[in-house]
Amino acid sequence: MAKHVSKNVFKWFKWELIPQYDQNFDCTKQEKHAPTKKQEHTHPVDVVFKYNDPYLDHSVLLNTDLKSYSKASITSPNIRSALKSLAQTIDCARVSEEWRERYDTTGTAEIRGLLFVYNHDAEWDRDFSNLLLPIKKKKDEEGEDARGLTANSLPLEAGQLIHIVEPRTIAYMTTIVADAQRLHTEGSFPSTNYYFFYPDLKLHKARGDKYGHPATIEMICGPFLILEHDQITKYDEVSKEPKVTFQAGFVVFYNRPGNSHLEFMYLFDVLSSYQILAGSNKLRIRVAHPSPNKNIRNNFMRAIDMYIHDWGFDEYKREYLTSIEFEIIEIQKSSFSKEELGWERKRK
Predict the structure, then answer these.
(1) What is the mean pLDDT of the chain?
(2) Which of 50, 196, 240, 265 has the fewest CB atoms within 10 Å, counting from its CB?
(3) Could you give the CA distance from residue 61 to residue 108 in angstroms, rounded to a whole number?
């Protein structure tokens, strides 16, 4: 189930899936990772995702551990154990010729870990980060085990990264994809000619074709995500001619509750620094948070008034800011029947 969801969702974010599933590789550091094992130790690879980071200008390969859990199974011991295993896998993958020959033939990509935790009954409603809080050991427990792991004590070597995509982030991603598809049906968003916005910064400049820019894992897990698109043109079946249905612009998917007008004043500052508030393109802000504040729309309007007042903007700027489309979109949570997926596999 996790494989089914991850494959469909990450494709829209312009990630490439390397079509080799469930292929373990030999451990190159058995004395370190499995010293008590008598037989040859291996590391699991459920799937590997790939994208090119526009700022780093190199490929990132995400050795992904796909977990499909019910709400009751998303427990601290399970998550800690998965992270420990993944950390050891990445440690070996970075020096394994077998792994490189299978997934990184150029030998130039950065290898990271990704724990993808899918909640298949769609009932998870807790703060996932609490699962990694320190656990007090009992008096008769000694040494380090999976129960005692925290985010700061994972067996990660220098320079290694593990990312976690947990149920709320998956719901956020699924919501974005569903909303973009709905906008496309309405004629206000493209099917393919969209790209994730990477501004030129003081220390980093975006490289490569902007239409190929993916959403990096850092962007996906951030407080908001900016997309840019060109003018939308669709074929009119009545006139038999192409027809412009929407102007070029930006879409901001916002992943915060909007508890204060200060949130949106900060967002305006960021968009202004990116030259997005210049007033020449359509701007839409679409809130994709599971628990938006009941006064979020009032907070947004107050932010506009305060922002105009603080910067002394004229009526032209006010007109543009008040023209921003602000929508709260419904969160999409997917759940699957194991039996139905079993039938799908048999048909394939």
Answers:
(1) 87
(2) 240
(3) 10
